[in-house]
Amino acid sequence: MAEEKSAPQQADGEALENLLHEGRQFPPSDQFAANAVAKPSLYAEAESAGTEFWARQAREMLTWEKDFEQTLDWSEAPFAKWFVGGKVNAAYNALDRHVEAGNGDRVAINFEGEPGDVRQITYAELTDLVKQAANAFESLGVGKGDRVAIYLPMIPEAVVSMLACARIGAVHSVVFGGFSSDALRNRIDDAEAKLVVTADGTYRRGNPSSLKPAVDEALSDGKSTIEHVLVVQRNEEPVDWTEGRDLWWHDTVAKAGKDHTAVGHDSEHPLYILYTSGTTGKPKGILHTTGGYLTQTAFTHKTVFDLKPEQDVYWCAADIGWVTGHSYITYGPLLNGASVVMYEGTPDTPHRGRWWEIVEKYKVSILYAAPTAIRTMMKWGDDIPAKYDLSSLRVLGSVGEPINPEAWMWYRKVIGSGRTPVVDTWWQTETGAIMISPLPGVTEAKPGAAQAALPGINADVVDESGQSVPNGSGGYLVIREPWPAMLRGIWGDPQRYKDTYWSRFEGMYFAGDGAKRDEDGDIWLLGRVDDVMNISGHRLSTTEIESALVSHAAVAESAVVGANDETTGQAVVAFVILRGEDAKKFTAEGADTSEIVADLRNHVGREIGPIAKPRQVLIVSELPKTRSGKIMRRLLKDVAENREVGDVSTLADTSVMNQITEGLKK
Ligand code: WTA
To answer: How many Cα atoms within 13 Å fall on the side-chain side of residue 586?
Structure first.
């Protein structure tokens, strides 16, 4: 593999140089600093307290049914146990205790449907809904430790289902609603889920779109572990029905009792599995457990977003199907008693000002979004946000991919009217919670940099041999000490957990990202150094898409690369060799490949989901390979990004790249 990996130092050399000469700095205003949740002393406090810093947070942020006896057990590293012996219930902490504290009337969820329908759900109401769902799930035979697949659009029932699972100790596995039936089935099988919660459908760009047919298809062979399908009625489109298996939410959950006592679960009891793409074709089921995850999501949500739950309206524009939706729509905010906004649809329906209309309408004060969305809105023009009153905004967050300084500046200037702190937060599905980020009110912000590990987190940039790099140099991002919200493993595959994250550098967690320290020691993220792509902030693996392509009858071989894209960060570009007669036919001069290309793109959409559809499919007659038969994606990336092709000396056949570039010119 060594030949294929580009050293992070080389990643986007020119762009990086520009970044590092980015001299602008934005200190917090005195007023913001004076009222901020985070104080500068937090760093020193964490440093001197060691893991006890987290013990303090755990007791401060959560209500434990039984206090823990040991903060961290790292004796079986890299398998961690945090807050050993403690018992805590996630749903009780996110809901009941706020009601008990007299905040039952506070709005928990402001739901805005794409067609414009709204639902305001208070903490008291959400608590009742979750109790009903917990009772209903139990009556369907779901118990502690059982897995529940949640395949829902962005509607409140997604949050209700997650918390109902957490309440009864069932393990949720949320599958992004944009994934195909195949992807859903693979995830159901891997987790051996008993129940799937879905909806008839949702609304997408002004039209009803369906979801249940994908579930029906996923379960069509009748051989899965699923016993029941619970269906929320959202768009009232007709659905097929399997008697005995399928149940309507409104017949089941809505009719269940509202009494349900939450009992504490062991601190290390599994909370959820979330599948994410790795460097192989098979997605990894990232496992998170209870006590540590809740502690760090609550702590980071409060300090990184400067949350004042009595007055803030917080909106995270991610989908619940990704980790951002788990940690910063459901767990972090609700643990802190925040009022959240949840929006079902696309940002340009019915018009391109929809996001800003929502900010104005709900007086959103904290917004958390992905750079790809920010760049898109930047492209749509300043006059659109200018039409709305955005003065309620006071903190802006970014997540999912590196944010280029230009987009950062636009976000702060145009959306934050030049006064709001912008926090660029680095973390991963695996880390569970934010790890590297400025702290509003404390950090002098630099556009485009995540800057510093949060208090209690020990992140570093190291070279090939695992030595810390000096300021001004690049290397690999690692985490040197265990952290509370860290993944506890890969579902059903402990060896893969060790190999993937803990074998590259002795005793350190390898994140798979390249990073650089600037002259001040601040950290800049540079993107992945492995075969994981980042498309609009979504993780996809090159291998996964290659496998999808070769499962098409016409394809002999394929290679996929992530090419730079101005809006989506990266875009999927696929190089494909066809089988038999087609191989010649479609690589001949003047051949019309449009039909086969469209067919292949749709095929990938069906296999994985529309987000995985290649932007470009290039039909070629050869692929560049090393003597040991490995595809050199680096060279294909050069082609995909219209660059001069780099060093070809390690190719088995050095003429291949010429054939490809010549072929593409035709
Ligand atoms: C990338 C999303 C630069 C990174 C929370 C990481 C980022 C992967 C940032 C995880 C950021 C996330 N700056 N890169 N602020 N945030 N990434 O698991 O490559 O979907 O490894 O988690 O996204 O993606 P995941």
So the answer is: 22
Task: For residue 213, give the H/E element and its range.
Answer: helix 212-218
Instruction: Tell which atom from ligand 1 comes closest to the C-alpha of 450.
Output: 15
Q: Which residues of 62-93 are buried (b: 16+ CB within 10 A; e: fewer)?
A: bebeeebeebbbeeeebbbbbbeebbbbbbbb
- To test the pocket of ligand 1, the residue of 279, 286, 288, 427 to mutate (highest count of ligand atoms within 8 Å of its CB) is 427
**CB-based contacts of 532, cutoff 8 Å, min separation 6:** 277, 278, 279, 512, 539, 540, 541, 542
Closest residue CA from atom 1 of ligand 1 = 401
Cβ of 534 closer than 6 Å to ligand 1, yes or no, is: yes
Peptide bond into 614 cis (omega under 30): no
Say yes or no: CB of residue 368 within 6 Å of ligand 1: no
Query: Which pTM value belongs to this model?
Result: 0.91
268 and 84 in contact (C-beta within 8 Å)?
yes
CA dist., res. 485 & res. 478, Å (int):
16
479, 458 in Cβ contact below 8 A? yes
Report the separation in Å between the CA atom of 426 and the middle of ligand 1, taken as the mean of its atom positions.
Answer: 6
Decide if 432 contacts 486 (C-beta within 8 A).
Answer: yes
pLDDT for the residue numbered 660: 86
Q: The tokens of 153 are what?
A: 């659009």
User: What's the DSSP call for residue 134?
Assistant: H
Residue 14's pLDDT band, with cuts at 50, 70 and 90, is: low
525 lines ligand 1 (CB under 6 A): yes
Taking the CA atoms of the chain, what radius of gyration do you get in angstroms?
25
**Cα separation, 42 vs 304, whole angstroms:** 12
Per-residue pLDDT tens digits for 574-629 = 999 999 888 888 888 888 999 999 999 999 999 999 999 999 999 998 899 887 77
Q: How far is the CA of 301 from the centre of ligand 1 (A)?
A: 17
